[in-house]
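Give me structure tokens for this 452-residue protein.
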Amino acid sequence: MNISAIILAAGQGTRMVSNKPKILHQILGKHLVEYPIDVVQKSGAEKICLIVGHMAEDVKKTIGEGVEYRLQSEQLGTGHAVMQAIDFLSDDEEVIILCGDTPLISYESIDKLKSFHLTHNHDVSVLSAIVENPFGYGRIIRNSDENFLRIVEEKDANIKEKQICEINSGIYMFKSNSLKYALSKLTNNNVQKEYYLTDTIEILFKDGYSIGATSAVNVDDILGVNSREQLAMATNIMKDRINKKHMKQGVTLIDPISTYIEPDVVIGQDTIIEPNCIIKGNTEIGSNCCIGYNTKIDNSNIKDNVNIEISVILKSTIGSGTKVGPFAYVRPNSVIGKNVKIGDFVEIKNSTIDDGSKASHLTYIGDADVGKNVNFGCGTVVVNYDGKKKHRSTICDNAFIGCNTNLVSPVVVNENAYIAAGSTITKEVPQDSLAIARQKQKNIENWSNRKR
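Here you go.
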């Protein structure tokens, strides 16, 4: 059995009041359309077709080559959108159809729809939902045996039908041959002169095809995003889902309401996340860590037993047992080893720092390779930029860098070397030596009296 998916993503989304397509707005770091793409992939779709229209080239550039594209140059309804993918459909396959602005659709609901569809061998299966206020939605009409009869739109429903709380989600699973047949019969004989996908269900029903409906696992799964307000609502729902998942897996979130964790983040058990943290991208955090409040971590790898306080870590690796912060800034392409101390107001950029080294406060280390057990005194600066080019320095194992030292790159400080406080180092420092690069102190007596 082959499964494909068609995702409708051609609309502009005027209620977003935006210069970019609605589906390219984001929830927790992922574009709206990426959520249904991920779900149908997980559900077994071997190929996916994205129906694009408004700013199609921008959508293609953003989403990339993982899906196929078909252009709906004129937005003439949902049925018309699916017609653009006729050549995408193979014979004798199953096709999931859903919208690109439904980021909350879950794997569980799509899997339930798929199981229902295949078990009953329906030509089309509709994903429905039970809602408290069904106003504005098409109603699922069933017979006395609870079998599907039809979908009635709000404007066409009678008083009794309007009381029905089971609604059409706009998510379907078709046999491809049945879908092709229904699309060939589809017309635009309506006030809007559009081709509606829901009309294909009526066509199939009248011609004796097998149709069924099953409800979503969670009513939130079918919510669409059509405005900034709905975008915020969907973000909060997704945030809550993600946070609950991590807590079920043994992560402590002190205040889930103020904690923002993106969907692809992995966190080990017994790690504590304090309030107001933002954890983004493909970040992996190990076990028994403490991520202190007001910390931002983006696309980084944090090993076990790490303690981070009020800091920013971007596209870097932090080794086990290391302490970072408070107020540290670890910039991209930095690799920090085990049991390292990166203290308050320390900035690391594009550098490697090996096990056991310390930069406890007020230090900048940029474009440097630092060995084991190196100590940076307060106020040390690796001077890596000459105004035109960046240069790289090397500080070897067991070096001791005194306070207020400037290391003017490129420079090498060899093993066991010491640098006196207040030095500006421009030449290589030999192994086991002491480097002093400062002018001899000179006192001028009575100078201040003469000045006054």
